[in-house]
């Protein structure tokens, strides 16, 4: 299969590209290489696979460029994005142009590609907003949502909060509607907290990796909120498996939206529980964190109800949170040179 991966030099993208190349697919990575670590990720792919994949350096904000890249592709995995809530607040125009307009450009490119491609979009749980109508109960080390014992399902009303939530949410709905209006074989993944190897986390995005990187390299950690916010963690290898499974079962998944996360079995509060686990994993004390105000739209709890994905395309996570964090910590410790400076 001929596969185009936008943002293919990013964290999720390079892991997805590697899996697709190993499976024998013809992969083209479309990326503007602006993200921290993207050049290192491409170098890693070249070390493993040589010239067996193509790289198209371009920007999804340029419609003609992405149209050329999509021509003749049989699958388009759209991962390119502006990913930080804080950045969206300080620069909402750029956030909109990348996430909303950029996704529109990729959709149009796929529609015109000539091969009726599968189209899978990497969306976010932020489309559900702050969920203020679902009161959280505070416990010693975490918040709980009594109204959602199995996690949040896809029927939860959308409530875009923050420019990032708006831009990703608008794109989410465009992808869904292109299946209805144009028959595009599109799928939306509303992803929870994804983590794993090759994640170059920074303070405002990729918190699991960032906390590990900071702890390993002796940098300060700042917690926004009180650290009891709960997330379900999904290892990148399990997410990659979801992309491949949803493609294989596209007759069932086309036009559908799926919440993807670690589910209720793979949850941690972001510091009250993660901090001690990190110290245990690294075998050393962690520099005490500083605390600042909550970020806009930050949910006290988000846990994905992943039952729909399991029922409709047979997917569920297999890497538990302790195992996954241990894997990521080993990778960070083995690749300290990637984090020797802020430029990564």
- What is the averaged pLDDT score? 95
Give the domain tally.
1
Q: CATH H level: which superfamily?
A: NAD(P)-binding Rossmann-like Domain
Distance between the termini: 33 Å
Helix content: 25-40%
**Numbering strands along the chain, what is their spatial order in the largest sheet?**
3-2-1-4-5-8-12
What is the fold-level CATH name, i.e. the topology?
Rossmann fold
Shape: globular
Tally of individual helices: 12
Biggest sheet statistics: 7 strands, parallel
Low-confidence stretches: none
- Per DSSP E runs of 2 or more residues, the count of β-strands stands at 15
Strand and helix layout:
Layout lengths: L1 E5 L4 H12 L3 E6 L6 H12 L4 E4 L5 H8 L4 E4 L6 H6 L1 H20 L6 E7 L12 E2 L4 E2 L18 H20 L2 E7 L1 E3 L11 H11 L4 E3 L5 E6 H13 L1 H4 L3 E4 L6 E3 L4 H9 L7 E3 L8 E2 L4 H7 L7 H14 L10
Parallel strand pairs: 1-2, 1-4, 2-3, 4-5, 5-8, 8-12, 9-11, 10-14, 11-15
Antiparallel strand pairs: 6-7, 11-13
Helix pairs in contact: 1-2, 1-8, 3-5, 5-6, 7-12, 10-12
């Amino acid at each position: 299969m001929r596969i185009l991966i936008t943002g293919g030099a990013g964290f999720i993208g390079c892991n997805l590209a590697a899996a697709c190349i190993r499976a024998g697919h013809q992969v083209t990575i479309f990326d503007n290489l602006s993200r921290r670590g993207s050049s290192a990720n491409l170098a890693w792919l070249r070390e493993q696979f040589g010239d067996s994949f193509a790289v198209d350096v371009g920007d999804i904000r340029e419609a003609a460029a992405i149209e050329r890249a999509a021509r003749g592709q049989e699958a388009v995995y759209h991962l390119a994005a502006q990913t930080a809530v804080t950045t969206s607040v300080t620069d909402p125009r750029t956030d909109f142009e990348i996430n909303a307009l950029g996704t529109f450009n990729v959709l149009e490119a796929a529609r015109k590609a000539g091969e009726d491609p599968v189209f899978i979009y990497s969306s976010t749980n932020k489309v559900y907003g702050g969920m203020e109508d679902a009161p959280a109960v505070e416990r010693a080390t975490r918040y709980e949502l009594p109204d959602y014992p199995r996690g949040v399902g896809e029927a939860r009303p959308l409530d875009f909060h923050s420019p990032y939530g708006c831009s990703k949410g608008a794109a989410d709905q465009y992808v869904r509607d292109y299946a209805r209006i144009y028959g595009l074989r599109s799928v939306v993944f509303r992803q929870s907290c994804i983590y794993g190897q090759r994640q170059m986390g920074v303070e405002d995005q990729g918190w699991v990796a960032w906390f590990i990187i900071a702890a390993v390299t002796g940098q300060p950690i700042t917690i926004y909120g009180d650290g009891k916010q709960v997330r379900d963690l999904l290892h990148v290898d399990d997410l990659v498996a979801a992309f491949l499974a949803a493609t294989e079962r596209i007759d069932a998944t086309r036009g559908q939206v799926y919440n993807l996360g670690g589910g209720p079995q793979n949850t941690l509060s972001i510091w009250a529980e993660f901090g001690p686990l990190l110290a245990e994993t690294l075998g050393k004390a962690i520099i005490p964190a500083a605390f600042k105000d909550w970020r806009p739209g930050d949910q006290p709890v988000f846990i994905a109800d992943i039952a729909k994905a399991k029922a409709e395309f047979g997917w569920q996570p297999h890497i538990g949170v302790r195992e996954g964090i241990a894997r990521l910590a080993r990778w960070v410790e083995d690749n300290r040179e990637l984090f020797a400076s802020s430029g990564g």
